[in-house]
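Continuing the series of single-chain predictions for the mutant panel. This is the parent chain; the variants come on the following pages.
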Amino acid sequence: MNLGSKWNPAAALTRIYGGSTNLADVLLAAEKVPSTKAIAMEILNWQVTLWLHRLMYPERVYSLLRVRESAVGDASRFLYREYIEAYREVMHLLSRNTR
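Parent structure:
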């Protein structure tokens, strides 16, 4: 069975953890533990991909990642910056395709 691009573990985990905020909290906490850091970052990247697929507004992602409460250099700030760049690129591509 090839799940390929049709299955995103973040979508399943979002349902299991009761929403994007709860999952982001768990993953950001797991990112701070050396033994779970790599898998947490991988799933966070899947979650960001899911948010991009859903065209989630950057303001919502800012809130979900709790960027306001995070320290400078925290993973949530890094992920938010990555999301902003990717979101702008997606929106640019979408605007070109509608012309």
